[in-house]
């Protein structure tokens, strides 16, 4: 079994892949999220791990678009508690650092910590663990990385400060992607991710939300995106939770007939 992730060993995606699939699978790292989606769609990998939202920084909207464009299905979700740690080559202190590099979201989540160190320049990079790896391989002094404890262990870096994220109760939601399948598993789903493209009518969104609520569907997320080929019209990415799977299916059929069109990205178990 092959699992696609964005990043390298020590990244949060790598950690989720191990937690979900174990250590016996082959984990294949890719540079960007689109390469993960593409390899799953082409069948090069069996599953893909994709970050979709963070409890501090919010949703990663381009990743919703990747699910849609590559016609992928959400098999499952996983909530990972995020611990950001400042690390560098051994033998240095935080006062020795002129620059800290990491993924933009990691830098955003740790911004307050660095207010006490104005001499440190924060620089966006591709991935948390890749910076740690580069520092180790190139023996770079004066530059730190923000990454996981696992990355510090893998690349033998010294942790100068742990849990430096502003909000300690910090989670990232990951989704497990696969090619479309009719298999729902042994347990009926109680959560779904859908895309609704509504009819261009006055008050249609309010009517849609009222209908979903009346059908027993609890909206845990809604994000709007423009319909590219139709200026000023919008689609909505929606995560909804429910207790009655049959009621959910009935509600979806009614949305298709009365409110617009629905594309189901995935039906799965709520892991929150």
TrEMBL record:
The keyword Amino-acid biosynthesis applies. Residues 2-179 form the Prephenate dehydratase domain. Pathway: Amino-acid biosynthesis; L-phenylalanine biosynthesis; phenylpyruvate from prephenate: step 1/1. It comes from the Bacteria. It is an enzyme of class 4 (lyase). Its EC number is 4.2.1.51. This is prephenate dehydratase. Coiled coil: none annotated. CDD domains: ACT_CM-PDT, PBP2_Ct-PDT_like. InterPro entries: ACT-like_dom_sf, ACT_dom, Preph_deHydtase. Residues 193-269 form the ACT domain. It catalyses: prephenate + H(+) = 3-phenylpyruvate + CO2 + H2O. The keyword Membrane does not apply. Transmembrane segments: none annotated. Keywords: Amino-acid biosynthesis, Aromatic amino acid biosynthesis, Lyase, Phenylalanine biosynthesis. Gene3D superfamilies: 3.30.70.260, Periplasmic binding protein-like II.
């Amino acid at each position: 079994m092959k699992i696609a992730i964005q990043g390298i060993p020590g990244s949060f995606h790598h950690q989720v892949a191990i937690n979900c699939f174990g250590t016996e699978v082959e984990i294949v790292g890719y540079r960007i999220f689109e390469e993960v989606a593409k390899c799953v769609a082409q069948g090069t990998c069996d599953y893909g791990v994709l970050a979709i939202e963070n409890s501090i920084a919010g949703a990663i909207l381009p990743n919703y678009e990747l699910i849609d464009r590559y016609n992928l299905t959400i098999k499952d979700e996983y909530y990972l508690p995020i611990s950001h740690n400042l690390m560098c080559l051994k033998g240095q202190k935080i006062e020795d650092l002129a620059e800290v590099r990491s993924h933009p979201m990691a830098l955003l989540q740790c911004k307050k910590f660095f207010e006490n160190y104005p001499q440190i320049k924060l620089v966006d990079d591709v991935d948390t663990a890749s910076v740690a790896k580069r520092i180790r391989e190139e023996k770079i002094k004066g530059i730190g990385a923000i990454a996981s404890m696992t990355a510090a262990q893998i690349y033998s870096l010294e942790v100068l400060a742990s849990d430096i994220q502003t909000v300690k109760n910090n989670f990232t939601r990951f989704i497990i992607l696969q090619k479309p399948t009719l298999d729902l598993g042994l347990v009926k789903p109680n959560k779904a991710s859908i895309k609704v493209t509504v009819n261009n009518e006055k008050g249609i969104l309010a009517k849609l939300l009222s209908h979903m609520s009346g059908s027993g569907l609890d909206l845990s997320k809604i994000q709007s995106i423009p319909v590219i080929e139709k200026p000023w019209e919008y689609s909505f990415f929606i995560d909804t939770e429910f207790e009655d799977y049959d009621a959910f299916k009935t509600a979806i059929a009614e949305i298709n007939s009365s409110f617009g069109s629905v594309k189901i990205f995935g039906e799965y178990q709520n892991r929150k």
